[in-house]
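Q: What would this chain look like folded?
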Amino acid sequence: MFSKTDIGSGKIETTLVAMALVAACGGGGGTPTSPSLTTPPNTVTITSSGLEPRDLRVAVGTQTRFVNNDTRPHEIRSNPHPTHGDCPEINDLSTLQPGQSGLTRAFTREIACGYHDNLDDTNRAWRGQIIVGGASAISERDLYTY
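A: My prediction, written as structure tokens:
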């Protein structure tokens, strides 16, 4: 690999440094790894028949995206109606026009957040819950009674 004249010429040192860099970078053959992708926020889709999913469990510190795939606007607000005080993280959503989406603020505590469409607050199709962390889900009876 090296001759006697290579000693002291810097070729050996350069080769060793290059080999160390290749080893440190995981160089060599094999399949390259893909960079890790961040997981998109949890999503609730609004359709003409209701919410999908109606109940969504998320981790503390995450946001939820609402996507309006319906043909009419929706205004998602926290329960209870009309004060909307249980989960202010949800109330920052603007009215979603057809085709629009919006993000809640990050949920900072374990809680079950019931929500509804403020533009049609008596319609059960537009009611759901975001269950944050290890919180217990809201019972069916309590979700529809506020």
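Residues 42-143 form a domain with the Immunoglobulin-like fold (CATH 2.60.40.420).
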